[in-house]
Amino acid sequence: MDIIPSQIDPPAPMPASNTVVRTGTEVPPAVNGQQIPVAIKKLSIIIPAYNEARTIHLILDKVKDVFLIRNIEKEVILVNDCSKDDTEQVIQQYMLNNPAFPIRYLKHTVNQGKGAAIHTGIAHATGEYIVVQDADLEYDPDEYNTLLKPIVNGFADVVYGSRFMGGNAHRILFFWHTIGNRLLTFLSNMFCNLNLTDMETCYKVFRTSLIQQIYLQEKRFGFEPEVTVKIAQIPDLRIYEVGISYYGRTYKEGKKIGWKDGVRTVFCILKYSLFNHHVRLPAAVKVPANTEQL
Description:
Order of helices and strands: EEEEHEEHEHEHEHEHHEHE
Strand content: 15-25%
Number of strands: 12
Oligomer: single chain
Radius of gyration: 18 Å
Number of helices: 8
Largest sheet: 8 strands, mixed
CATH class: Alpha Beta
CATH architecture: Alpha-Beta Complex
Distance between the termini: 25 Å
Helix content: 25-40%
């Protein structure tokens, strides 16, 4: 398939030669309130996968075809969380069929959870920024440029993609899931002193040097509330939100999150905001155990 430009945002113009540009690994300076554009060479795209044989090749096609603004390079890190179906065979066949599309394939030898797969991806990331991409088709990689725009224009250090704002397409599904998401986001905002509209979103973009210093413990869907609480505790961190589309799945189609994960989310919000203030690691993040690189 040919590479096509993103239809969400046209490529942003490059800064003029006399414009100060900083790299994505630096701490954002305060220069009389002026925003300094960020020069990003590489975006690390972390794809945690568990039993996604039906859709993994389709999402990889979408990631392959998206053209990032300012010619940002893509680093695809695919983490197979010990799938029980044919996910590994599909991935290996895809890699053989697409040798020009480099994929860093990592595999857990035991199932650990989505959060653990994200931890593994973070540990291996070499791009200046990281985005998390689900292996199903609920989130559209063509919107990476929408997420990157506040960063490359010098406004944001972290960007959340919200399913509950903007005029993009949203599949109509479960009423109580929507209420649950809004309640969990409200609770998170109350304890974090933020005004997010979608804390549970998959689409989160972090500066790699920042996220690799954060002490992350949650190995399942608790990653979302934990990372939100911990970045909220970092002084002067600029968090932005942009509207994204959402092509949700039913449980019959493979959706995995359930009510128990909602209960765990409440626990994580309370735990990490009230009782656990261990935010930063004393050293660089280590590669998790039980991981193979293929």
